[in-house]
Amino acid sequence: MPVNIVCRQQWGAAAPKQKEALKAPAQRVVIHHTALQNCKGLVECTEHLLSIQRLHMDKRQFDDIGYNFLVDREGTVFEGRGWGVVGAHTKGHNHDTLGVAFMGNFNNDTPTKEALQSVKQLLVSGVSQRFLHSQFDLFGHRDLGDTACPGENLYASLPQLRSLT
């Protein structure tokens, strides 16, 4: 089942300062959490996305929102940098990865089955469109950097995302 993605224009994203294309399909997927409060509904989640993008571009001096995609608790997938674009989500590991952020703080919250299912569908779609290597590896941000991200409860759910069946 194809995943429905809310595109950048729909959530009012600012234009990126610049974009760098991945040179090949992403070899790895890195799962993050935004570590912010959960959002609900398009209006509230759009506000969160704009806030994250401003933080990344203004405070952290990124070219754009750092993640390739974000997903809310209802399973809505939002386009960040999108497919085939180098992200800014895992220092030293952005040139062969796809960064997907679950919106919320998963030290406290538990990822919903809707969000997990949507990310699975997104990854299947990425493989079928050749943006993601068919034998990709999936990591939590903490596996590649000194961080608690993506939170205990989401990290514990990663095995569910590794099995795309």
TrEMBL record:
Belongs to the N-acetylmuramoyl-L-alanine amidase 2 family. This is Peptidoglycan-recognition protein SC2-like. PANTHER family: PEPTIDOGLYCAN RECOGNITION PROTEIN, PEPTIDOGLYCAN RECOGNITION PROTEIN 3. Residues 3-145 form the Peptidoglycan recognition protein family domain. Pfam families: Amidase_2. Keywords: Immunity. The keyword Ribonucleoprotein does not apply. It comes from Nothobranchius furzeri. Residues 14-151 form the N-acetylmuramoyl-L-alanine amidase domain. GO terms for molecular function: N-acetylmuramoyl-L-alanine amidase activity; zinc ion binding. SMART domains: Ami_2, PGRP.
